[in-house]
Amino acid sequence: MAELTKSGVAGVLARQGILIAFVIFMVGFAIANQRFIAVDNVFGVIRSSAILGVMALGVTFVVIGGNLDLSVGSMMSFSTIVVLDLHDKLGPALAIPAMFALTLLLGAFIGFLVGYLKLNSLIVTLGMLSAIHGLTLTWSGGKNMDIADKSGTWFGFFGQGSVMGIPMPILMFAGLAAVLGIVLARTPFGRKVYAVGGNGTAATFSGVPRARVVFTTYLLSAFCVATAGLMQASRSMGSQNTVGQGMELEVLAAVILGGASLLGGSGTIFKTVIGVLILGFIQNGLLLVGLEFYVQYVVTWTIIILAVWLDIAAKRGRLWSPIA
């Protein structure tokens, strides 16, 4: 009976380890500072995490498919600069679809290299990180971008507007997470992504079009990056040309923190959302308890490592690896 109970607890931890860690973090920070659970603070954290979260949704597909995407930070800078620049030249109605088209072209190029030419995704996306950054600087002439007439455009709705009191970035994040969650969990394409990431060779022999699936995951990632770029540009109505620099590591941290395996084949959209919120609330909680920003980096890293360790330990039923 004791073994069954122990097995049941281990099973719960294995399935919901990251969610339990999230609850523990929330309770701990709420005890340390009651303002942490105030409605305006909670909405503020989710809103500020929405851009990172939208990017993480797309990268989740890439990682589950057994690949990496380190280009998303530079690509977000590119999409933000492009939509701001085209806004004054073409107007928002044309600038937004044009930006999405250009960003999707970049995603398609990466997907072609990784999916059809079967190049290493780490090398390809690391190289594209620098290449897209150079493309962004070339497009902007090395200058930052601002919308000339901020008061005479509806463009700010995506980043500053709200519906029924809920900020638009939160609605966009939640809506995209719901749609992509259904795609990943309930559609044949989602099952193919898991199959390719779990065992690409077996998936190929089973008739799964491996190259096409990988290509599509990078298109999805690019679409999410373009959406994040739209939110960022709309929120500030202007941007530095390095606005997304370094975000690729935060995005990957959120995806891995959510339980997706770097080896591919496992992960969910829901847990990625939890991973994003953990990062956001950890940073906010540390700020509220009065830690200096440079200490927050170390503490955040430590908490992430601890959470991932406990999640993995729960899945294998022990704290330490059985292999010495």
Protein model, in words:
- There is one protein chain.
- With 324 residues, this protein is mainly α.
- The protein contains 13 helices and four strands.
- A two-stranded antiparallel sheet has the order 1-4. Strands 2-3 form a two-stranded antiparallel sheet.
- Helix 2 (39-64) runs parallel beside helix 7 (168-186), helix 4 packs antiparallel against helix 5 (121-140) and helix 11 crosses helix 12 (269-288).
- The model has no long low-confidence stretch (mean pLDDT 87).
Any descriptors?
about 325 residues; mainly alpha; two-stranded antiparallel sheet; 13 helices; 4 strands
- Outline, from the CA principal axes? globular
Our measurement of the CA-to-CA distance between the termini, rounded to an integer number of angstroms, reads 31 Å
Which class of secondary structure composition applies to the elements?
mainly alpha
Average pLDDT level: 87
Radius of gyration: 20 Å
Relative strand content: under 5%
The H-and-E topology, N to C, reads as HHHHHEHEEHHHHEHHH
Topology, number of strands: 4
The largest sheet is:
2 strands, antiparallel
How large is the count of helical segments?
13
Number of domains: 1
Stretches where pLDDT is under 50 for at least 5 consecutive residues are: none
Which bin fits the share of residues in helices? over 70%
Strands ordered across the widest β-sheet: 1-4
